[in-house]
Amino acid sequence: MAKQGQCIGVAPQDQSRGIAPTDQSRPAQHLDRTIVLIGLMGAGKSCVGRRLAARLGVAFIDSDVEFEAAAGCSISDYFAKHGEAAFRDGERKVIARLMEGEPCVLATGGGAFIDPDTRARIKAGALSVWIRADLDLLVKRTSGRDHRPLLKTGDPREILSRLMDARYPIYAEADVIVDSTDEPPEVTVAKIIQELEKI
Protein backbone atom coordinates (compact mmCIF):
# COMPACT_ATOMS: atom_id res chain seq x y z
CA MET A 1 0.00 0.00 0.00
CA ALA A 2 1.33 3.43 -0.88
CA LYS A 3 2.37 5.72 1.93
CA GLN A 4 0.50 8.95 2.39
CA GLY A 5 1.49 11.43 -0.31
CA GLN A 6 2.85 8.79 -2.66
CA CYS A 7 1.50 6.99 -5.67
CA ILE A 8 2.93 4.45 -8.04
CA GLY A 9 5.04 5.97 -10.77
CA VAL A 10 5.46 9.23 -8.89
CA ALA A 11 8.62 10.24 -7.06
CA PRO A 12 7.67 12.85 -4.45
CA GLN A 13 9.57 16.12 -4.15
CA ASP A 14 8.41 16.49 -0.58
CA GLN A 15 7.03 13.59 1.43
CA SER A 16 4.76 15.98 3.31
CA ARG A 17 2.98 17.09 0.16
CA GLY A 18 1.14 14.59 -2.01
CA ILE A 19 -1.18 14.84 -4.96
CA ALA A 20 -4.40 16.27 -3.60
CA PRO A 21 -7.37 15.95 -5.98
CA THR A 22 -9.23 18.82 -4.34
CA ASP A 23 -6.31 21.16 -3.60
CA GLN A 24 -5.03 22.88 -6.72
CA SER A 25 -2.55 24.98 -4.71
CA ARG A 26 -0.29 22.08 -3.78
CA PRO A 27 2.76 21.55 -5.97
CA ALA A 28 2.81 18.55 -8.28
CA GLN A 29 5.15 15.64 -7.83
CA HIS A 30 7.59 14.45 -10.47
CA LEU A 31 6.82 11.30 -12.42
CA ASP A 32 9.44 8.61 -12.69
CA ARG A 33 7.61 7.02 -15.62
CA THR A 34 5.14 8.08 -18.25
CA ILE A 35 1.39 7.85 -17.69
CA VAL A 36 -0.23 6.49 -20.86
CA LEU A 37 -3.91 7.22 -21.38
CA ILE A 38 -5.82 4.60 -23.35
CA GLY A 39 -9.44 4.26 -24.45
CA LEU A 40 -11.76 4.61 -27.41
CA MET A 41 -12.13 7.75 -29.49
CA GLY A 42 -14.31 10.22 -27.64
CA ALA A 43 -13.32 8.98 -24.19
CA GLY A 44 -11.58 12.29 -23.50
CA LYS A 45 -7.93 11.22 -23.47
CA SER A 46 -6.56 14.46 -24.90
CA CYS A 47 -8.81 16.77 -22.94
CA VAL A 48 -8.22 14.96 -19.66
CA GLY A 49 -4.56 14.40 -20.45
CA ARG A 50 -3.76 18.10 -20.77
CA ARG A 51 -5.30 18.83 -17.40
CA LEU A 52 -3.71 15.81 -15.73
CA ALA A 53 -0.28 16.83 -17.03
CA ALA A 54 -0.80 20.34 -15.68
CA ARG A 55 -1.72 18.94 -12.27
CA LEU A 56 1.38 16.74 -12.24
CA GLY A 57 3.67 19.43 -13.61
CA VAL A 58 4.82 17.45 -16.66
CA ALA A 59 4.46 17.71 -20.42
CA PHE A 60 1.39 16.46 -22.26
CA ILE A 61 1.92 14.63 -25.56
CA ASP A 62 -0.72 13.34 -27.95
CA SER A 63 0.62 10.44 -30.01
CA ASP A 64 -1.83 11.20 -32.85
CA VAL A 65 -0.48 14.76 -33.12
CA GLU A 66 3.08 13.43 -33.08
CA PHE A 67 2.22 10.89 -35.78
CA GLU A 68 0.77 13.59 -38.02
CA ALA A 69 3.86 15.74 -37.54
CA ALA A 70 6.11 12.83 -38.49
CA ALA A 71 3.94 11.77 -41.45
CA GLY A 72 3.38 15.27 -42.76
CA CYS A 73 -0.34 14.69 -43.18
CA SER A 74 -3.47 13.97 -41.17
CA ILE A 75 -4.19 10.49 -39.87
CA SER A 76 -7.33 10.43 -42.02
CA ASP A 77 -5.27 11.17 -45.15
CA TYR A 78 -2.63 8.62 -44.12
CA PHE A 79 -5.33 5.97 -43.70
CA ALA A 80 -6.70 6.77 -47.14
CA LYS A 81 -3.29 6.62 -48.84
CA HIS A 82 -1.58 3.77 -46.99
CA GLY A 83 -4.20 1.79 -45.06
CA GLU A 84 -4.63 0.89 -41.41
CA ALA A 85 -1.77 -1.62 -41.24
CA ALA A 86 0.77 0.99 -42.31
CA PHE A 87 -0.71 3.47 -39.84
CA ARG A 88 -0.45 0.98 -36.96
CA ASP A 89 3.19 0.32 -37.83
CA GLY A 90 3.95 4.03 -37.81
CA GLU A 91 1.96 4.56 -34.62
CA ARG A 92 3.95 1.79 -32.92
CA LYS A 93 7.22 3.50 -33.82
CA VAL A 94 6.04 6.94 -32.72
CA ILE A 95 4.87 5.68 -29.32
CA ALA A 96 8.13 3.77 -28.80
CA ARG A 97 10.06 6.97 -29.50
CA LEU A 98 7.90 9.07 -27.21
CA MET A 99 8.28 6.61 -24.35
CA GLU A 100 12.04 6.97 -24.53
CA GLY A 101 11.75 10.63 -23.56
CA GLU A 102 11.18 12.29 -20.22
CA PRO A 103 8.20 11.03 -18.21
CA CYS A 104 5.02 12.75 -19.33
CA VAL A 105 1.30 12.22 -19.77
CA LEU A 106 0.85 10.51 -23.14
CA ALA A 107 -2.56 10.23 -24.82
CA THR A 108 -2.70 7.43 -27.38
CA GLY A 109 -5.05 6.56 -30.21
CA GLY A 110 -7.84 4.09 -29.58
CA GLY A 111 -6.05 1.19 -31.27
CA ALA A 112 -2.58 1.73 -29.83
CA PHE A 113 -2.98 -0.45 -26.71
CA ILE A 114 -4.51 -3.19 -28.84
CA ASP A 115 -1.19 -3.70 -30.64
CA PRO A 116 0.67 -6.44 -28.71
CA ASP A 117 4.10 -4.83 -29.06
CA THR A 118 2.89 -1.41 -27.98
CA ARG A 119 0.92 -2.90 -25.10
CA ALA A 120 3.97 -4.83 -23.88
CA ARG A 121 6.12 -1.70 -24.10
CA ILE A 122 3.59 0.30 -22.11
CA LYS A 123 3.28 -2.41 -19.47
CA ALA A 124 7.05 -2.65 -19.11
CA GLY A 125 7.89 1.02 -18.91
CA ALA A 126 4.83 3.11 -18.13
CA LEU A 127 1.65 3.34 -16.10
CA SER A 128 -1.50 2.78 -18.17
CA VAL A 129 -4.81 4.48 -17.41
CA TRP A 130 -7.97 3.41 -19.22
CA ILE A 131 -10.53 6.18 -19.51
CA ARG A 132 -13.68 4.13 -19.91
CA ALA A 133 -16.88 5.58 -21.35
CA ASP A 134 -20.25 4.15 -22.30
CA LEU A 135 -21.58 3.97 -25.84
CA ASP A 136 -24.01 6.89 -25.62
CA LEU A 137 -21.26 9.24 -24.43
CA LEU A 138 -18.84 8.10 -27.12
CA VAL A 139 -21.46 8.60 -29.83
CA LYS A 140 -22.28 12.06 -28.49
CA ARG A 141 -18.65 13.15 -28.38
CA THR A 142 -17.70 11.84 -31.82
CA SER A 143 -20.81 12.88 -33.75
CA GLY A 144 -20.40 15.58 -36.36
CA ARG A 145 -16.64 15.14 -36.65
CA ASP A 146 -15.00 13.81 -39.79
CA HIS A 147 -11.39 13.33 -38.69
CA ARG A 148 -11.84 9.77 -37.38
CA PRO A 149 -11.21 7.36 -40.26
CA LEU A 150 -12.68 4.30 -38.56
CA LEU A 151 -16.04 6.06 -38.24
CA LYS A 152 -16.23 6.86 -41.96
CA THR A 153 -16.93 3.29 -43.00
CA GLY A 154 -20.49 2.92 -41.72
CA ASP A 155 -22.87 3.80 -38.90
CA PRO A 156 -20.77 5.40 -36.11
CA ARG A 157 -22.84 3.92 -33.30
CA GLU A 158 -22.57 0.41 -34.71
CA ILE A 159 -18.83 0.82 -35.30
CA LEU A 160 -18.22 2.15 -31.79
CA SER A 161 -20.26 -0.70 -30.31
CA ARG A 162 -18.20 -3.22 -32.25
CA LEU A 163 -14.95 -1.55 -31.17
CA MET A 164 -16.10 -1.65 -27.55
CA ASP A 165 -16.76 -5.38 -27.77
CA ALA A 166 -13.35 -6.03 -29.30
CA ARG A 167 -11.22 -3.60 -27.35
CA TYR A 168 -12.69 -3.23 -23.86
CA PRO A 169 -11.44 -6.66 -22.68
CA ILE A 170 -7.92 -5.61 -23.71
CA TYR A 171 -8.20 -2.12 -22.24
CA ALA A 172 -9.13 -3.87 -18.98
CA GLU A 173 -5.47 -4.90 -18.64
CA ALA A 174 -4.63 -1.27 -17.78
CA ASP A 175 -3.05 -0.48 -14.42
CA VAL A 176 -5.79 2.02 -13.57
CA ILE A 177 -9.39 2.23 -14.82
CA VAL A 178 -11.58 5.30 -14.40
CA ASP A 179 -15.01 6.05 -15.83
CA SER A 180 -15.54 9.15 -17.92
CA THR A 181 -18.97 10.71 -17.58
CA ASP A 182 -20.70 13.71 -19.11
CA GLU A 183 -19.08 15.99 -16.54
CA PRO A 184 -16.21 18.50 -16.71
CA PRO A 185 -12.84 16.85 -17.49
CA GLU A 186 -11.52 17.96 -14.11
CA VAL A 187 -13.80 15.35 -12.54
CA THR A 188 -12.03 12.57 -14.46
CA VAL A 189 -8.63 14.07 -13.61
CA ALA A 190 -9.51 13.93 -9.92
CA LYS A 191 -10.62 10.29 -10.27
CA ILE A 192 -7.31 9.37 -11.91
CA ILE A 193 -5.24 11.02 -9.20
CA GLN A 194 -7.32 9.37 -6.49
CA GLU A 195 -6.76 5.96 -8.09
CA LEU A 196 -3.02 6.58 -8.44
CA GLU A 197 -2.81 7.31 -4.73
CA LYS A 198 -4.44 3.98 -3.90
CA ILE A 199 -1.74 1.94 -5.61
What do these coordinates show?
This protein has 199 residues and is of the alpha/beta class. The chain has one domain: P-loop containing nucleotide triphosphate hydrolases (Rossmann fold, 3-Layer(aba) Sandwich), CATH 3.40.50. 47% of the residues lie in helices and 13% in strands. The protein is built from 8 helices and 7 strands. It has helices at residues 45-56, 63-71, 75-82, 84-99, 116-125, 135-142, 156-171, 185-198, and strands at 10-11, 30-31, 34-38, 60-62, 105-107, 126-132, 176-179. The strands form 2 sheets. A 5-stranded parallel sheet has the order 4-5-3-6-7. α2 packs across α4, α3 crosses α4 (84-99) and α4 runs parallel beside α5 (116-125). It is globular, with a radius of gyration of 17 Å. Residues 1-28 have low confidence and may be disordered.
**CATH superfamily label:** P-loop containing nucleotide triphosphate hydrolases
> What is the helix/strand order?
EEEHEHHHEHEHHEH
Major sheet: arrangement of strands: 4-5-3-6-7
Examine the secondary-structure arrangement and name the CATH architecture: 3-Layer(aba) Sandwich
Poorly predicted ranges: 1-28
Estimated helix fraction: 40-55%
- Strand content is 5-15%
Number of strands: 7
Overall structural class, as computed from helix and strand content, comes to: alpha/beta
Average pLDDT for all residues: 83
Primary descriptors:
alpha/beta, 199 residues, two-stranded antiparallel sheet, single chain, 5-stranded parallel β-sheet, disordered N terminus, Rossmann fold
